[in-house]
Structures are given as C-alpha cells and as structure tokens.
Design a protein that fits this description.
Helix content: over 70%
CATH class: Mainly Alpha
Number of helices: 8
CATH topology: Arp2/3 complex 21 kDa subunit ARPC3
Order of helices and strands: HHHHHHHH
Low-confidence stretches: none
Shape: globular
Number of strands: 0
Number of domains: 1
Distance between the termini: 17 Å
Radius of gyration: 17 Å
Largest sheet: none
Length: 194
C-alpha cells in the first residue's frame, strides 16, 4: 500500500493534537514522572519516518509556544531528536517488538535530557515550576552543579515517560489494524528503497 501525502499530513496533525492534549492532561493531573507529550511524535516517526516525525514535533512545540508560552518553542529540538531516533530505529528494527520499544525508550530517556537540560538551564536556571524542581533543589543542596541537578531530574522523569511512551506506541500499532497496515507498508517501502 502506497501512503499518500494527505494521509501522512492527517496523521501528523493527529500526532500534534495527541501531543498537546495528552501532555496537557497529564500536566494538569500532576502525574509524577509522566508527560506523554511526545507520543504523537513517536507514532508519526514510527509510521512515516524520522522527518515526518520531526515535523510533527516541531509543529507541536510551535502550537505550545503560541498557546502556553514562547519558551516551549525552544524544546522543539528535543522533539526533533526523539523523532530522528525513533524513526531511524523503527526503520531498522521491528518497533512492535517490546524489547525494541523498551530499548528505544531507554535511549530516548538519555538523549532527551541531554538536549533539554541546556535549554532548561538557559531559560529557567534549571527550574521549570514542576514537581521535578524538588529533585533539582535536592541535588543543588547536595552540591551538584545546576546542569547536573537539572539533568538528574530530567533523566529520572524521562526514564519512566519515554519507556511508557514507546510501549504505548508499540501496543497501539500491534492492536489497531490501520496503524499496523501503515507500519508494514512503511517497512516494505524501505526494503524496496534499499
């Protein structure tokens, strides 16, 4: 099945909506160590590749920048990195296999804070008004630098969030026939292109 651009753009728009809505709900509910604000990016990157996922991620952060505050735009770099990593892994390996999803989540849990920490330090001095600030303050009083304190708080949250995100996407693709069909068609297109 050849996937047309309209289908990809439609799923990208849905991915943006999923990122914004789930991220907002989880944030409002103050669920610790969970954000779910990149799940749409991951879905699009798995189904259509890293560049469509990156577009979804950047546009998500632009929407958040307009609706919640302009600093969200800077974190679009994190969304791009997530899309590139997930899209690349899903093209080389079967993302519907749980070990692949878990390993991808663990990799993202390291990469996302490596990119997001300098942005958070530059914009907010490492604090962002969330519950994770407690970890930053604890680490600072223990003698850690601002960067190390912020990184520790971000990696602890991302360890849970990114693994859960990747597992949810793998589960959705396995269980929803249309997503599975799109995923398989993308895998087939890559085999023929190689």
């Amino acid at each position: 099945m050849k996937v047309n651009r309209t289908t990809i753009l439609t799923y990208s728009a849905l991915g943006i909506a999923i990122n914004v809505v789930l991220g907002t709900i989880v944030s409002m509910l103050n669920i610790p160590l969970l954000f779910l604000d990149t799940i749409g990016t991951v879905i699009v990157a798995v189904l259509f590749g890293p560049w469509w996922g990156a577009l979804t991620g950047v546009l998500t952060n632009i929407v958040l920048g307009v609706t919640t505050g302009p600093t969200a735009i800077f974190f679009g770099l994190v969304n791009v990195a997530i899309a590139v990593v997930v899209g690349t892994i899903s093209r080389r390996f079967d993302f519907t296999k749980l070990p692949i999803a878990i390993l991808t989540g663990l990799l993202l849990a390291i990469i996302a804070p490596l990119i997001g920490t300098p942005i958070a330090v530059a914009l907010f001095g490492g604090l962002n008004g969330s519950g994770m600030d407690l970890i930053v303050l604890w680490a600072r009083t223990a003698g850690e630098s601002v960067f190390a304190s912020t990184f520790i708080s971000r990696i602890s949250g991302n360890l849970v969030d990114k693994v859960v995100t990747c597992l949810l996407v793998a589960f959705l693709i396995q269980r929803l026939p249309m997503l599975l069909k799109l995923y398989r068609s993308g895998k087939e297109a890559n085999k023929h292109a190689a």
